[in-house]
Design a protein that fits this description.
The chain has one domain (about 10-405): Sodium:dicarboxylate symporter (Proton glutamate symport protein). It is mainly alpha-helical and about 400 residues long. The radius of gyration is 21 Å and the shape is globular. The longest helix is centred in the middle third of the chain and has 29 residues, at about 210-240. Helices cover about 75% and strands about 0% of the residues. This is Sodium dicarboxylate symporter family protein. It is a multi-pass membrane protein.
Length: about 400
């Protein structure tokens, strides 16, 4: 008799449901299972810093200098603007609608209040983005400083490697990055158990009231996704002078594949084909923007992280200052770098950003339980954001074939 093997997503959902049931039935008697979830989160977290460091260097260092020129600057500008807008939508939605209210988690044993209460000035916050000692930043796990260094190192490597003199170094970094991805893939096999244990602890401690904030979070994220998509389509309709009907037709397959695979990497081939054939983007533009966007740009993840941070702060009854809001937006942007193609990228990115603003790491367990549903919205925003950027750059460079829209208008 053949036994059906469930994929990891199904296993995580089963683990979440079993964990909630165990917590509701067992109550405080099963609260000790939290240690299993904590071990899983630590295993994820241990590979995050080297992964981000190597992934950013590889992504930037692999680009020829000519691609880091005019087109590279335009691409980076569009990526930055759309990602900031996405993060701000997530931040405002969380602040306005309070999805985390109704659930009160304990801060016992954490230093979150102190970290959130004693924040540096805006000037010192900006200066804090730049490291004085990269080894100190690595030792302390200062994510923003590490990414800033990696960006500059990647640019220097790209420039120095024009004649392939540093190809061995680039190959070594690429191999280390792949090994780290393999390590996280291995750790993610434990996700059903780890997430199930965390959900059991949360429900054992707080009861069934934990379900409502998670539902509110998903509804808000879905509404934010629709709002952002409307804004992107309106922008390219007006700025690139192309009909909305043609845009909807051109993006239809891309959105369907993104929703069903919940993977930016799995969507890339369809994204590139349709960008050229159905959306009129010249091959030169699509081959630069779309793979780079998959590795370095993530509108969906930025919105998710910003909304998640506000929601988690509300779980603990913590007020968020304007400085913390700026930090959340900045972290939501930089945490996207290199994590989009990693298995469980949303969970990995949360492991980067949550400790950085002083929130307890175990709070990730709540949103990890609904990560697959969140992944649908994240992936749609990611691939549509990348493709929209490609259309805008193609229009600016006069490399957009509008004939394909006329046939669908």
């Amino acid at each position: 008799m053949m036994h059906k093997k469930f994929n990891l997503t199904t296993q995580i959902i089963i683990g979440m449901v079993v964990g909630i049931g165990l917590g509701l039935v067992g109550g405080q008697q099963v609260a000790g299972i939290k240690i299993v979830g904590d071990l899983f989160l630590r295993l994820i977290q241990m590979a995050v810093i080297p992964l981000i460091f190597c992934a950013v260097i590889e992504a930037i260092g692999s680009l020829p200098m000519k691609q880091l020129g005019r087109l590279g600057l335009k691409t980076a500008a569009w990526f930055t603007v759309t990602t900031i807008l996405a993060a701000c939508i997530g931040l405002v939605a969380g602040w306005w609608f309070n999805p985390g209210h109704g659930l009160h988690l304990s801060l016992a044993g954490t230093n979150a209040k102190q970290l959130l209460a004693h924040q540096p000035s805006l000037q010192n916050t900006i200066l804090g983005f730049f490291p004085t000692n990269i080894f100190e930043a690595l030792a302390k796990g200062n994510t923003i400083q590490i990414i800033v260094f990696a960006l500059f190192f990647g640019i220097a490597l790209s420039k120095a490697n024009q004649n392939q003199h540093y190809q061995t170094l680039l190959t070594g970094i690429r191999q280390i990055n792949q090994l780290l991805i393999d390590l996280i893939t291995l750790v993610m096999k434990l996700a059903p158990i780890g997430i199930g244990a965390l959900m059991a602890w949360v429900t054992a401690t707080n009861g069934a009231k934990v379900i409502l904030p998670l539902s509110k979070f998903l509804i808000l994220f879905g509404a934010g996704t629709l709002l952002f998509l409307f804004g992107l389509f309106a922008m390219i309709t007006i700025r690139a002078h192309i009909p909305l009907r043609g845009i909807l037709h051109g993006f239809s397959r891309i959105i369907i594949v993104a929703m069903t695979t919940t993977s930016s990497a799995a969507s890339l081939s369809v994204e590139m084909a349709d960008a050229e054939k159905r959306l009129g983007v010249h091959k030169q533009i699509s081959e630069l923007v779309l793979p780079l966007g998959m590795a370095l740009n993530s509108n969906g993840l930025a919105m998710y992280l910003a909304l998640a941070c506000v929601t988690m702060s509300q779980f603990y009854g913590l007020a968020i200052s304007p400085i913390i809001m700026i930090k959340i937006v900045a972290l939501s942007i930089v945490a996207c770098l290199g994590t989009v193609v990693v298995p469980g990228g949303g969970l990995v990115a949360l492991a980067i950003i949550v400790p950085s603003i002083g929130l307890p790491l175990e709070s990730i367990g709540l949103l990890a339980g609904i990560d697959w549903f969140s992944g649908i919205f994240r992936t749609v925003l990611n691939v549509v954001g990348d493709t929209t950027t490609a259309i805008m750059i193609a229009a600016d460079e006069d490399q957009l074939d509008r004939q394909v829209y006329q046939t669908k208008a």
